[in-house]
TrEMBL record:
It comes from Sodiomyces alkalinus (strain CBS 110278 / VKM F-3762 / F11) (Alkaliphilic filamentous fungus). This is Branched-chain-amino-acid aminotransferase. CDD domains: BCAT_beta_family. Its cofactor is pyridoxal 5'-phosphate. Gene3D superfamilies: 3.30.470.10, D-amino Acid Aminotransferase, subunit A, domain 2. GO terms for biological process: branched-chain amino acid metabolic process. The modification N6-(pyridoxal phosphate)lysine is found at K192.
């Protein structure tokens, strides 16, 4: 019997994987029926398509939630493990509740992620590339439903895609979005629902066209406190001499980032402090570093944060933090807080130290002291039903 895991497939140029969606062997599906109260046994489906009724609430009312996590090969490519899948299982349960859907039990979630990776193991990138397989669990209301009531059936599916690696750590410029709120104050910002993302696209696209690689949201009620970046959590670093404190927003409108909580635990293990509290816009200049935390890129150092704001506004830093060394204004109605000067490509030392430990754990180069690696075995792929898609009844 061939050993597990198989080596990376030779149909992909692993030195140049990039971020396009590549076809793999297939995905995992399970269906929940409200009548039986049960999830069907996991099924492997050998194609990337979902067969779903056009009147499904997923397509009409946005009754949907998703997750994002990663699987990595260990040294010598001889093991594969998924990073902190239990956290994503719990987060999907939370999102399900917010979108009026039944929770996927944690054991079903973990078995489905493990099976999806095991049955596509050849598509997990080689260890030496530092790249990973992205895992995309998704849940949605799938049976036909005209009225605005929760439907009878829900589909839970897990897709996987091999992804590339961001070479080096490149600081990016951030733009605060003041004209658009991604979530209402008592809304759905703490759930990973597709509907929170589509409306952001045109704003992040416009920002990118102006050279801002990432967009930042303030609290929707007053635009006074930091919420999160559009696709990642916010972490500020407060330094007093040798004392390092990570400051993360305490907001009910942000996603509970697995990456952020992981680097918070790593920071504590270094003897650093962590504060979770509301972060006022006006105190951002006091941070020595700011970075974005998310599964896609790990930690991304923020070069600068720009806000389009009337200088006469009571919130303008030109007023509240007049003369602060990090604050500047390149043009009327715009102010920028700079952490890493233009032309400098180096991330801050706190960011780099956290990132190298995080990656070391994910890639199996460091001991798994926190119990974060969920190993994938061959039998994880054997527990699912065969992959032929049945026709709709
Ligand atoms: C809005 C938002 N915030 C934060 C995160 C970071 O979460 P995680 O670290 O679990 O990927 C994500 C990405 O999932 C996100 O979409």
């Amino acid at each position: 019997m061939a050993p597990f895991p198989p080596p990376p497939v030779n149909t992909i140029d692993w030195s140049n994987v990039g971020f396009k969606v590549r076809e793999v062997n297939g995905h995992i599906e399970s269906t929940y029926s409200k009548t039986t109260g049960k999830w069907t046994p996991l099924k492997f489906v050998a194609d990337p398509f979902m067969r779903i009724h056009g009147m499904a609430p997923a397509l009409n009312y946005g009754q949907q939630a998703y997750e994002g996590l990663k699987a990595f090969r260990g040294p010598d490519d001889t093991t594969i493990s998924i990073f902190r899948a239990d956290r994503n299982a719990k987060r999907l349960q939370h999102s399900a509740e917010v979108a009026s859907m039944p929770p996927v039990p944690e054991d079903v979630f973990l078995a489905a992620c493990r099976a999806a990776v095991a049955l596509n193991a050849g598509f997990v990138p080689p260890h030496a590339t530092g790249a990973a397989m992205y895992i995309r669990p998704q849940l949605y209301g799938s049976s036909a439903q005209l009225g605005l009531n929760p439907p009878e059936e829900y589909v839970f599916a897990v897709f996987v895609v091999p992804t590339g690696v961001y070479h080096g750590v490149h600081p990016v410029k951030a733009l605060i979005l003041d004209e658009f709120d991604r979530t209402a104050p008592r809304g759905t910002g703490n759930a990973k629902l597709g509907g929170n993302y589509a409306p952001v696209l045109r704003w992040s696209d416009a920002a990118r066209a102006e050279g801002y690689g990432i967009t930042l949201h303030l609290d929707s009620a007053k635009h006074e406190e930091v919420d999160e970046f559009s696709t990642s959590g916010f972490i500020g670093v407060a330094r007093h001499g040798d004392e390092v404190t990570l400051v993360v927003p305490d907001s009910t409108s942000v996603i509970d980032s697995v990456t952020s909580s992981s680097v918070q635990e790593i920071a504590r293990s270094f003897g650093w402090k962590v504060e979770k509290r509301p972060i006022k816009y006006s105190e951002i200049p006091d941070f020595s570093e700011v970075f974005a935390a998310g599964t896609a890129a790990g930690l991304v150092p923020i070069r600068s944060i720009t806000r389009r704001i009337d200088p006469s506004s009571s919130q303008s830093l030109l007023k509240t933090r007049e003369g602060h060394g990090r604050v500047s204004s390149a043009k009327q109605g715009e102010e920028t807080i700079t952490f890493i000067a233009d032309g400098v490509e180096d991330a801050g030392e706190v960011c780099l130290r956290l990132l190298s430990t995080l990656k070391g754990i994910q890639l199996g180069k460091l001991p798994d002291e926190f119990g974060w690696r969920f190993e994938v075995r061959e039998e994880d792929g054997r527990k699912v039903e065969d992959g032929l898609r049945g026709v709709m009844p």
